[in-house]
Design brief:
Elements lengths: L14 E6 L8 E6 L6 E7 L8 E3 L5 E6 L5 E6 L6 E2 L4 E2 L5 E7 L2 E6 L4 E6 L12 E4 L15 E6 L6 E5 L4 E8 L2 E9 L6 E6 L5 E6 L4 E8 L4 E9 L11 E6 L5 E6 L4 E8 L4 E9 L5 E7 L2 E6 L4 E7 L6 E8 L3 E6 L1
């Protein structure tokens, strides 16, 4: 992957950060410049200090980038990203979990969802946003699902705060459930549990901007479950399901990422087995979704996507491309605009 030779002393515009699997030939963490006139990305630099930094998150101030290390040992790392080249801010911190695949920032902590061990780990943050020396607590999931190959035990796949910042929402593919937790002295504590369709394999959840609804995308069944969300009580209540693909797919579908448009009018999902993005419209206050259709994802095996500035960005893992799309404001349908090469790309976020 070629990168431009741009130093931190130059004028700094908006940045994108891309995670990748180093074990599959990826470059690690990639920093890219964002052209705000057309959404285009230009790779600037990379850092391969941490193996398999598959998922990333930015600090609220945008000066620290956090990355999981999706390995059997499991760790989380912090980078300073005030310049164009990320600089590791201390050694990675073990999460006492196998295969952390997602992370989120909650109440002065980084939380990781550890897929292999079916757990969530909290690591405190120092005042400057860097990581403390060790984790403060681990919540271990229990249970299984009917799919004997994929659901033999718990598999935490995503962890994030709800928009109010009070609750930790934890999606478990292995147990067909969403756990709602709180941090108690740095330890994730289970408060509520919502069970979803058996064998559906929930993977990721996205909130509507009004914080009254949440949408759960399933990996083992190509559907989204629409849920009512009560931020006061932490109750997540399933209301119904909507398919993300027209008709019955040929072979396994493996939906992956889900994102809600900033104005709450559209939901987009990615499906790896079909190499498509799905467009769903949101009716009224967020309670009902309708599938509009699908478009090609701009590569092969779209693992994650994000929406920003009227553009949709997709990390296509197996084709090694991060593609971007402009979005028709009247229909929500993405239109391909370009891509850059990032081998084994797994995540893209914008700061």
């Amino acid at each position: 992957m070629a990168v431009a030779d741009v130093g931190a002393e130059g004028g700094r515009g908006r940045r994108a950060f891309i995670g990748s699997f180093t074990s599959a030939g990826g470059p690690g963490v990639v920093v890219a410049a964002v052209d705000e006139t057309n959404g285009a990305l230009t790779a600037l630099s990379r850092a391969d200090d941490v193996p398999d930094p598959s998922y990333l998150a930015l600090s609220p101030g945008g000066d620290i980038l956090y990355a999981v290390s999706e390995t059997a040992e499991g760790a989380v790392a912090a980078y300073r990203v005030t310049g164009d080249r990320p600089e590791l801010a201390g050694p990675p911190v073990p999460v006492h979990g196998d295969g952390p695949t997602h992370l989120g920032l909650v109440a002065g902590h980084v939380l990781t969802a550890n897929y292999g061990s079916g757990s969530v780990t909290a690591v405190p943050l120092r005042a400057d946003g860097t990581l403390a020396d060790s984790a403060s607590g681990v919540l271990r999931h229990t249970g299984s699902g009917p799919d004997e190959q994929r659901q033999e035990g718990p598999h935490a796949h995503q962890v994030q705060p709800d928009p109010s910042g009070r609750w930790v929402v934890d999606v478990d593919l292995g147990t067909d459930s969403v756990l709602v937790c709180e941090l108690d002295a740095g330890v994730p504590v289970l408060r509520r549990l919502t069970t979803l369709r058996p064998g559906s394999g929930p993977r990721h959840l996205a909130f509507h901007p009004n914080n009254s609804y949440a949408y759960v995308l399933h990996e083992l069944t190509p559907i989204v479950t629409v849920c009512r969300w009560d931020a006061g009580s932490g109750e997540l209540t399933p209301l119904g399901e909507i398919p993300v693909l027209p008709g019955t797919p040929d072979g396994d579908a493996y939906p992956s990422g889900i994102v809600v448009s900033p104005d709450g009018r559209y939901v987009w999902t990615a499906t790896r087995g079909q190499d498509v993005l799905s467009v769903l419209t949101v009716d009224g206050d967020g309670e009902k979704l309708a599938l509009v259709g699908t478009v090609p994802c701009g590569g092969h095996w779209p693992r994650a996507l994000t929406a920003s500035g009227g553009y949709l960005y997709v990390a296509n893992e197996r084709s090694g491309k991060v593609s971007w799309f402009s979005v028709d404001p009247d229909t929500g349908v993405p239109r391909p605009e370009g891509s850059i090469e990032v081998p084994a790309a797994s995540c893209v976020i914008l700061g």
